[in-house]
Structure formats: structure tokens, C-alpha cells
Predict the structure.
Amino acid sequence: MTVDAHTDDAAILALRAQGRLDEALVRLLDQYEARVYRLCRAFLRDASWAEDVAQQSLIRIWKGLPGFDGRAALSTWIYTIVRNRCNTALRSRRVDSAGEDALDACADAQVADPSAVDAAALLARVVHSLPDKYRLPVVLYYFEEESVSAVAERLGCPEGTVKTNLSRARRELRARLNAMGLGDWTLWN
Amino acid sequence: MELNAADSADRALHRALREALRPPVLPTDFRAQLRRQLVMQSASMQQQVVLQQEWQCTQARLRAESVQLRWQTLLWLLGGAFAAGAVTMAVMPWVASHYGARWSYGVPVAVATLGLVASWVGDPRVRRLLAQSGFFGA
């Protein structure tokens, strides 16, 4: 987290405390709405579902802001709320498994003509079939401009853990792509 | 050589992942929708506060009225009892002298019976029972 981010967080809290609600809200949203949305997208995959949960999270954050005690950084508090909301949403609604079933079938049968497949879409699906432990760091890494520290902050875990999981995720991805007959990397270029 | 192949595979996977996992763009009306929801929630909360205040006021008024009614009833009962006593004191000697001593017991008993029946019939539960049994007609 940078000094600027700290200053912005302090400004948000100060504006909120002074009762300048509109300015505080604008600052909060400028700073966090896109990040919250991306985090929700990483967790939930589905765009409209992520939008709903991101909105709920931001409302919860805005309402809870007066009670924020400052024991942790504002960003840590915010991302914890978002993660909890996402996990609650995931628990309350089973993820549609149709896509994964299709992917499994694809993996079992091997791709007959890899060049005919939309490479990016297929790779995204393979990534989404990874366990959350590996999927979330990979997705967030690319969503957050390839910053390990940003991923660690969003997931609330040490950078070392993120690096390890990223490395294992790539290994797992390569193994799965090989199993699908898509191990030839010239296809991806 | 193997190391180079692994490196190029890594780089290729990295490029492919960068392509496949582009950062999602925030929906265009995201903030407007969020503001609408915040306004709606704030309005509904204000409405809730107003309703709660109104309810508390109504409750306090009803409680005060109930206490007032109880006092009124008590005073009416006391007044009625003393008035009945005064009337009895005034009328009984006259009844006894004109109709005989038996009537000085009969009149109070008759009045007491009438009063009891009237209060019994006036009780809403009894009235409901009588209405159900068809006593007051259809």
C-alpha cells in the first residue's frame, strides 16, 4: 500500500467524520469501486452477480465506515468485507456447474482441433476450473496489473503465499492444458 | 535447452493468460446505480425512523389515555356509590312509611338485581355470546 493510498484513506475518513458525505462517498468510490468490482469478479466469475455483490459490499462499507476503528488499514477492512460478502454469496448460491461439466468433458475427450477453439476463452475456462486457492491469485494477478502485492492485499495473505500459489497454479495449468492436448505453446502465440 | 523451452513455455502461458484474463471494466452505470440504492436505503431508513417515532408517540398517548380512563372510572364508581348511599338514606324512610318495612329490603334488592343484569348484558363478551346464540335475533 502506497503513501498516496494512506492519504486517500485518511481523507475519506476525515470527510466522513466532518459530515461531508458526498465528497467522502466520491473519494471512496474513486479509490475502491473498481478494485471491489474486480475482486468480486475474481471470486464469483459471473459479471452481473459480481456487480450485485460489489454494490452490496460498497453499501455495507459506506454504512459501516463511521464504526471503522482504525485498528487495520482501511483497505484491509474493505477487502475483508468484500471477501466475506463474496464467500456468503457463494455459500448461498451454488456455482453453476454446467460450464465446468462441459470443461471436464472437453478435458476427458481431448480437443480434436485446437486451432478451432477460441484460445483466450478456453484458457479462461481452464483457469476457472482450478481450485480457488490457485484460481484467485492467478485471476487477480492479471486483473490487478500483475502486482503480487496488490493480490496479497486483496486476498489478505502474505506475498510469499501468493507467489507460491501463482507458481503452483501455472504448473497445474500447464498440466491440464497438456492433458487436453493443448500443450503446444505455439498455438497460444 | 530444456530450460529455454520451459522459459518460452512460461512466457507463452503468461502472454496467453494476460490475454485471457483482461481486467474487467466497471459497468457504465455502476456508480449511478449504487447512488440510487444508497438514496433508497437512506429514504427507507428515514421512513422507518419516522414510523417508529409515530408508533412510540401513539403508544405513549394510549398509555396516558388508559391511565386517565382508569382514574375517571374509579372516580365515577366512588361518586356513584356515595350517591346511591345518599339516595338510599333519603328514600328508604319514605318507602318504609308508605309501603311497609318489607319494601325497604325489596327495593334495594330489586335495584341491585337490575344493576347486575344491566352490567352483565353490557359486557361485550356476554353480548357476543348472546348474539351468537341468536338471543338478539338475526
